[in-house]
Amino acid sequence: MTAETWEIARFTVLMALLATTLVLPFAIATGWLLARRQFFGKALFETIVSLPLVLPPVASGLLLLWLFGRRSPVGQALDAAGIDIIFTWKAVVLSMMVISFPLVARSVRAGIEQVDRRYEQIAATLGAGSFRILRTITLPLASRGIAAGAILGFSRALGEFGATIMVAGAIPGRTRTIAVGIYTLVETGREDAAWGLLVIAALLAFGAIYVSNRLVEQRGEA
């Protein structure tokens, strides 16, 4: 394995960790909302949250390109503030967040739904507010499900390709992730380097999924 291979792998892991860290608060809020609240339009909201799971990643990338491109109102506002998104490492993180978010949110929801609501009700009768109940009871009891979802989202972010190549491209040393790297290396006839990236990707994915599955099993035994 070459220095370039390790650099691509290091960059991808860092971007996936950052994407998972940034997406987790939103996924927790969404998972809690879907698990504990009934509201008008809930089915529509849940459908929108799950859309990145069924849309082709390239389509999600195209939507991100349209939303954050310089011709859009959001893109123009960011450009005026001196913030570049498209074809930078920020676009890599953004695409990873969008693609991994539904997986994390669904796992968080499943973890919260398994928490016995009686504990929350007892805390409420003792005067605890909603946020305190969430912080001290719901989230700790659902922590394994949340952790499993975060790891699953991280592993999905590691393998993201379609949206990333649309909004970030394949700029060497700047936006090239493992998935994009495998594609570009094969395209340029460097199969040996691509196989090196493939081995790293397989080991990372195997480890992440194994740990996630173990957490789910432990949650079921608890």
Could you describe the 3D structure shown?
The structure is a single chain. The chain is an all-alpha fold and 222 residues long. It has one domain (3-221): MetI-like fold (Orthogonal Bundle), CATH 1.10.3720.10. Helices cover 79% and strands 0% of the residues. It contains eleven helices and no strands. It has helices at residues 3-36, 42-54, 57-68, 73-80, 89-113, 117-125, 130-141, 143-158, 162-167, 178-187, 191-221. Helix 1 packs across helix 8 and helix 1 (3-36) packs parallel to helix 11. The chain is globular. The mean pLDDT is 88.
SSE layout and pairing:
Blueprint: H1 3-36, H2 42-54, H3 57-68, H4 73-80, H5 89-113, H6 117-125, H7 130-141, H8 143-158, H9 162-167, H10 178-187, H11 191-221
Helix pairs in contact: 1-5, 1-8, 1-11, 2-5, 3-5, 5-8, 6-7, 8-11, 10-11
CATH topology: MetI-like fold
How many structural units, i.e. domains? 1
Oligomer: single chain
Approximate strand percentage:
under 5%
The low-confidence runs, each spanning 5 or more residues with pLDDT under 50, are none
From the coordinates shown, what is the CATH architecture? Orthogonal Bundle
- For the record, the CATH class is Mainly Alpha
Structural class given helices, strands, pairing?
mainly alpha
**Rg calc:** 20 Å
CATH superfamily assignment?
A: MetI-like
**Total strand segments:** 0
Largest sheet: none
Helices and strands, in order, run as: HHHHHHHHHHH
Shape: globular
Tally of separate helices:
11
